[in-house]
Structures are given as structure tokens and as C-alpha cells.
Amino acid sequence: MTTTTSIAAPRSPRSPRRLRGRTNTELYAWLFMRVSGLLLIVLVFGHLFVNLMVGEGINALDFAFVAGKWADPFWQIWDLLMLWLAMIHGSNGMRTVINDYAERDQLRMWLKVGLYTAAAITIVLGTLVIFTFDPCPVEAAADLLPSFCPGA
């Protein structure tokens, strides 16, 4: 007597009709994670080195240090790249986690809407802070101002 055993089809979170129009989005997301991860290593360790090791180290970190640093467009772009890459890299990772663990389509959609909203707000506010930062505020105490400010 022969007994046949059948193996159940694996559970798929996507319906077959959604798979037909598939693009290489996941491949690009995977590549972005690798490239942005490498860039973030350089950006973060460069940021830590300049802020903590050069000059007086952590004792020099104050308003004047940040103001002087952000007065230079090079450091504005450096910090902007670090902000954007970190937020997009982290959001892409969270998107992957949501896709893997949120089983219902409606829940998955709302979690991603919340994720994308939070990431967009953080990126916009961070970008505004970097580019609208005033290193010489009028009401600041003179001893806190960087040396290049007129009242310092």
C-alpha cells in the first residue's frame, strides 16, 4: 500500500496577481542599504572624530562649536548627507521589517504610512535646522557666541 504525502504550499504574503507587475524595487532597496551603510560608516566616524577627538575633544562641544561648524558649507552638507542617509537607510530597514511581519494588508499599509510620515517630517525639520541655523543670534550672551560673530 502506497501512501502519498503532499506538502502544503508555502504561505505567501502577496497574492499572485500582485507579483506579476513586479519591478526591481527590492533589488534597488537592497543595493541602497549596502551603499548607504558604507557611506554612513564614513560620515558617522568622520563626524565623531571631528567632534570628539580634534581640538579640545568633548570639552569643546557647545553652541559656539556647532555654530562655527555650521558656518562652513562643507559641514552643512556633511551633516545633511548624514541625516538624509541615516533616515532613508533606517526607514528602508523598517519598511522591510513591516513587510516581513505585518500579515494584514491594511495594517501593513498604515504602518508604512506612519513610517514614511515620520521619516519625511524628520528629514524636512532636520534640513531646515541645518540651513536656517543662525550662528549669531541677537539675544545670545557674548561669551557663548562663536568668535566670528560681531558681538563676540
Corresponding CATH architecture: Up-down Bundle
What's the number of extended β-strand segments? 0
**In sequence order, what are the helices and strands, one letter per element?**
HHHHH
Structural class: mainly alpha
β-sheet strand percentage: under 5%
Question: Radius of gyration, Cα only, in angstroms?
Answer: 24 Å
- What is the tally of helical segments? 5
CATH third-tier fold name: 3 helical TM bundles of succinate and fumarate reductases
CATH H level, superfamily name: Fumarate reductase/succinate dehydrogenase, transmembrane subunit
Number of domains: 1
**Shape type:** elongated
Helix percent reads 55-70%
- N- and C-termini, Cα separation: 96 Å
Largest sheet: none
pLDDT < 50 stretches:
none
Averaging pLDDT over every residue, what do you get?
A: 86
Tell me, what is the CATH class? Answer: Mainly Alpha
Q: What structural keywords apply?
A:
single chain; 152 residues; mainly alpha; 3 helical TM bundles of succinate and fumarate reductases
